[in-house]
Amino acid sequence: MNHASTVSINPVLVRLNRDRRHRSVGVFAAWLVILSLVFFSLDYLNVPVERIFGVFGRIGEVVADRYYPPDIRYILDKTYFSYVLGTIQMAFLGALIGILLSIPLAWFASWNMTPSRRLVYPLARFVSMGCRAIHETIWTILLVSILGYGMFPGVVALIFFSVGFAVKLMAEEIEAIDMGPVEAMVATGANLFQVVMFGVLPQVRVALTGIAIYTWDVAFRAATVVGFFGAGGMGWYLKRNVLQIESQRVAAIMLSIVVLVLISEAVSAWARKAVMKMQ
Amino acid sequence: MTEKAGQRILNDVADQVVHERRRRKIVIASGTLLFGILALWCVNATIIIDTDWQRMGSIGDMLRVIGRYVGFDVPLFKQLLQPALETLLIAFLGTLIGVLLCLPVIWFGARNITPLGRFSYLLSRMMMTVSRSVHEIVWALFFVAVVGLGALAGIIAVAFRSVGFIAKMSAEAIENIDPRPVEAIQATGAGSFQVLRYAILPQVLPQIISVIMFEWEINIRRSAVLGLVGAGGLGLVFFRQLNTFNYHGVTSVIIMILIIILIGETASHAIRRRLL
Asked: Do residues A227 and A239 lie in contact, with contact meaning Cβ atoms separated by under 8 Å?
């Protein structure tokens, strides 16, 4: 009995050991690939490696030399406030329209509820991927060339941005619903629209509201820079001062962006918590 | 007597329900109205007043402008290969340096392992928020001033921008671990580093790797535009094509960006499936 058990456990141990060795070979190979990629890219991009390690010192130096002290008085100005207000309006409108477009698109782009898996589903996925793949600054540049300078192209760029951001998240929520109520409604003879309105929407309403608030928050972050490429808002101010090398004013504007984004993040966190509580 | 009382209670409940429904309806209606008015105000300010309608011209003019972009600059594609590879590598190095910068932030930011209590936790949360709240273009502008024009500025900008997201998700993963292995390893007399290595890391590594891969995908998209502010890669070519009014070249660059994003997404999917 005793003899037999030692005989049977040894091969198992051998196998486990071999498996471990295989795994460690795999980990070793992965590290080797990553390291060689690092060296290749440092070489290919002509990165001055010695500067990477000195970068924190340089940050301190540059900030002390050029950006400090930030010219706070420059941004405590009525025109600047109107630009900030414009940025908020742009973000609000872009995100609002983007979210309203995203809700039906998310329905079309969810595998379980889409009206047609062959046609509508890939189309909706493609639209959302296209909006997401092209960065908001590129959208802005293209739209400025079509619509002219001003906040209008910014709003449209933010619509694209919000659609790209929200559709994927919303579709994932719809795909994760409980199919029981949906099947029950289908059994009573409800059509697809009724099923979505009364079987799906009540289940995802809270989650979608959370995503919508989050989208607004992210859109505001994007809105702070669309002006840099010709759409209106704070980015326009930033561009002007960057070009004039007014570094202390640039520092003040950057600081104001950080503060505003922190405020918007706090507001959105509060709003999301409030929505969760309402559930 | 009891029947009457029961009837009264039922009536009260019904009244309450009706009241509640009416209140909800009023809240929803006034909320919608508020949103509508805000939206109209924004439309007026951002679109109607702020647009140069004369410059935009008629719909035909707009279509003509769009038409200029339709078409490819085929010979340009060969010159795009090198900047495309550069963009991928900027994203790779940026993500990697971002991960290295993340490690202390994650350590400080996960509530169950943070070394100095509330102080280090708040410090780390602040760093995450600043990293996420500053747009990559602004980071790049800053780092172009710090390290000069070129790929390095883009790499560091991408790294700084990535810290927030990776650190936040990883710290949350660490906060949600199963505490029993930690206790078991502590019971053997292990130090805090050993606990980190043998009890915490094995539990969260797959999640953290998948977060990193996800961030890498986003970073490709970001590094493709950082050239617009002087940080190398495809953005620089895009900028040049635009400034020389080579509209077909602009479209070609966009197609190239889409191609490398597709490559990045496929690669990250394959790696994630292999690992998890």
From this structure: yes
Q: Are residues B31 and B90 in the same domain?
A: no
Q: What are phi and psi of B206, to 5 degrees?
A: -60, -45
Note whether A24 and A82 are same-domain residues.
no
Query: Which range of residues forms the domain containing residue A11?
Result: 2-67
**Beta carbon pairs, A and B, within 8 Å:** 149
Cα(B258)–Cα(A134) distance, rounded to whole angstroms?
7
Is some CB atom of chain A closer than 8 A to the CB atom of B190? no
Greatest Cα pair distance in chain B = 95
Regarding whether A76 and A60 lie in a shared domain, the answer is no
Q: Do A89 and B238 touch (CB under 8 A)?
A: no
Rounded Cα distance between A114 and B228, Å, is 39
Name the H helices within A188-246: 192-195, 201-226, 234-243
φ/ψ bin of B143: left (φ > 0), alpha (ψ from -120 to 50), beta (otherwise): alpha
Q: Which two tokens stand for residue A165?
A: 């951001």
ipTM of the complex in this document: 0.83
User: A61 with A91, same domain?
Assistant: no
pLDDT given for residue B130 in this prediction: 86
Instruction: Tell me if chain A has a CB within 8 Å of the CB of B3.
Output: no
Please state the separation of Cα A55 from the chain's center in Å. Answer: 27
Domain span at residue B254 reads: 75-275
Instruction: Write out the two tokens for A150.
Output: 């001003």
Contact A211, A170 (CB under 8 A): yes
pLDDT at A1: 46
- What pLDDT is recorded for position B99? 94
Joined together, the tokens standing for residue A114 give 């889409």
- Segment B143-178, tens digit of pLDDT: 888 888 888 999 999 999 999 899 999 998 888 888
Whether residues B107 and B221 fall in one domain? yes
Look up residue B55 and give its amino acid.
Answer: R
Bridge partners for A231 per DSSP: A150
